Structure formats: structure tokens, C-alpha cells
Amino acid sequence: MSTETAKHARDPLVSGARKGAIYGIIISFSGAAVVGIIALLGGDFGETQGKILLTTVLFGAFSITALCHLAIADRAMRIVGVSGLLASGVALVSGLVLIWRDWADSDLEVWFKVFAAAGILAVSFAHANLLLLLAGRRRAAIRWGLAATLVAIAVVAVMLILPILTDGEFPGEDAADVYWRVFGVIAILDVLGTVVVPVLALFLRDGAGPATPAAQETEGVAAPLRLHVPADLAEAVRSRAAQQGSDPEAVALDALRRGLAGDDS
Q1: Would you say residue 199 has pLDDT above 50?
Q2: What pLDDT is attached to residue 207?
Q3: 32-36, 126-130, 199-203, 217-221: which range is least confident on average?
Q4: Is the pLDDT at 95 greater than 90, yes or no?
Q5: What is the mean pLDDT of residues 196-217?
Q6: How many angstroms separate the CA atoms of 230 and 260, rounded?
Q7: Closest by Cα among 163, 253, 149, 236 to 199
């Protein structure tokens, strides 16, 4: 395992951001609960109270998606997490505008489109980022299943956003029936992959058997070799193994093979 990966695994900035997102979830939904209780007991629930309630719920939703995006903030695919955070931020800002602007304003339709598109992207990225926690797995079934599910997530998002941005003009009346039938099929595959891939990851451990041709070639011919490594390196190996759902020995062997292959090149 590389030193860079070990550093990101202990990045205090990422850890702090995750804690902040958790606190945001707790505070936002607790605030929404308090506003709701006061409104019910006080019998006075007007427009202002409604906007406060919607604001707290919006911040809670933003915190939930942000926590999902931050799940891979210390991984190689962190750019996807950053993209998700940007989408969530746009959805938060546009949502606040929709809540607190005068609802009779004519330009709110534009803000609604921005909010809807950004919200779909934020949820889609959150969905993808949680699945990308399995990106380090080497089993072919998991890798292909993950790739197919990520494609399905992207297609579902695009197919939802296009009609919103075009005021329903796309795909048009003639193609609408086929369009939404195709959407339904892809959405089903999306759900299927979301359920099946993590379940496969529980049973198909990388360390359970040879996962690559290189591992297959060396199986059965290994000579006994004992290595004593520093405590920090051993902890880094165990951390990577926990992230991948593998065992420390398999992770250490994989890192050793890749390191020797790099030296040969």
C-alpha cells in the first residue's frame, strides 16, 4: 500500500468534514422536530414557520448527501466525491432561494430547474460514491457489476434531468412511451446492481482465493518468508484490508507484487 493512501486514510481534514456532516444531520433534523412540535402545540403554523421547517430539512438532506460524498474523499476516486459535493452545494443554494424568495416571482421556474437537476445529481453521486467504496476489490464479478451499476446510475440521472430542463418537450409525445419504458428497465437494473454488488462483496473476498492471473501463477509455489514491519506500516496494511473487505496478508502480498513489478520496469 502506498504512503499516499495511508496519509489520506488519516487525513484530519476529511475526518473533520465527516464529523461536521454528522453533526449537521443531527442538528438539522432535531431543529425540524422542534419546529414541528412547537407549531403543533402552539397552534400557529404560518408561512415563516413553514419556511424554517423546510430550511432545516434541506440542510439535513445536504448533510446526508455530503456524508456519502465524503466516504471516498480519501480514496483514488475522490474527484467523484468532490463533484458530488459541488452538486449538493448547488442544490442547497438553489433550494434556499426557492424557500425564501417570494413564491410569486417569475424567475423561480429557473431556480426550480437548477434545484431539481442539482438534486438529482447530488443523490446520484451519493449513490455512486457509496458503491465506489468497493472500487478496490479485485474480483471480476464485483468489478464488472460495479461498473454496470455506475453506468445505470448515470443513465437514470440523465434521463430524469433532460425532461426537467426542456419543460417536458424531451423526449416528445411520440417517443415518451418507449423512453419511460427504457427508463424503467434501467432503473430496475440500477436497483438490482445496488443490492447484488455489495452482497457479492460480502461473500467474494479478495483474500479467499487467487483473484488475478499473477496470484494464480504463484499459488502453491510460495516459499516461507517472514518479514517484520514497523508498527505504522502494519497498521496501514490493516486499514487498507478493512477498506477493501480483504485480509491483511492478501493486501501485503498485492502491494509487494506491485512494488517489485514497478522496480522491474
Answers
A1: yes
A2: 57
A3: 217-221
A4: yes
A5: 66
A6: 19
A7: 149
Distances (CA, A) of 221 to 139, 215, 217: 22, 11, 8
The model's pLDDT over 29-40, given as tens digits with 9 standing for 90+, comes to 898 888 878 877
The closest of 214, 212, 204, 215 to 244, measured between CA atoms, is 204
Buried b (16+ CB within 10 A) or exposed e, 88-100: bebbbebbbbbbe
Instruction: Say if pTM beats, i.e. exceeds, 0.85.
Output: no
CA neighbours closer than 13 Å in the CB half-sphere of residue 241: 17
> What does the alpha-carbon distance between residue 235 and residue 231 come to, in Å, rounded to a whole number?
6
Q: Cβ neighbours of residue 126 under 8 Å, at least 6 residues apart?
A: 64, 65, 68, 69, 84, 88
Of 85, 110, 84, the closest CA to residue 98 belongs to: 110
N-terminal to C-terminal alpha carbon distance within the chain: 18
pLDDT tens sequence across 1-17: 444 444 444 567 888 88
What CA–CA distance (Å, rounded) separates 217 from 213? 6
Residue of 75, 184, 181, 197 lying closest to 127 (CA atoms): 197
| Dihedral (CA of 39, 44, 46, 49) sign | negative
Distance CA 213, CA 142 (A): 16
For the chain, percent helix, then strand, then coil, each to nearest 5?
A: 80, 0, 20
Residue 38 three-state SS = helix
Q: Which of 55, 87, 94 is nearest to 68 (CA)?
A: 87
